[in-house]
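Dear colleague,

Following up on yesterday's call, I've attached the two folding results inline so they're easy to grep. Please treat them as preliminary; we haven't cross-checked anything against experimental data yet. The first protein's sequence and structure tokens come first.
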Amino acid sequence: PQPVSGGVSPGQWPITQVVSYFKGQGSTTLKVALSRLKGYETMMRQIFREEGIPEELIFVGLIESAYNPYA
């Protein structure tokens, strides 16, 4: 894709815009997603450690579906 003004390609927000979004308009969405993660985090971290998978991958589900079981 061609960059839009400021050299940012469509779909690529500067990190400051993402942080601002989740501090404001998106804060409820983030809180819900983190709340859902709490129900899975301990189990997932244990399994990831056992399997030699980086524990940080728990955040893929947070980004992908906000751990919504109906997503």
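Below is the second protein, in the same order (sequence, then structure):
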Amino acid sequence: GQGLHLSDYNECIARQAAKWNIPICDVHDSLGWNKYNHSVYFASDGAHCTSKGYEIIARKIWSFIKANEIF
């Protein structure tokens, strides 16, 4: 059979969040990294972020928290 990919899970989460009117913070597709700049944001293992990658994620989450008045 065909296995699921990360994007399949992300789409499912987005659909359920929309159904229940729950805001979500997309840190997968909205940050602008791609195969051309991957090494700037990810360590050599390809799975973990560099300090720059973590900084971008933190800024995105903080903006999301402020925009949604979570605190």
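For the second protein, one point worth flagging: DSSP finds three helices and no strands in the chain.

Best wishes,
A.L.
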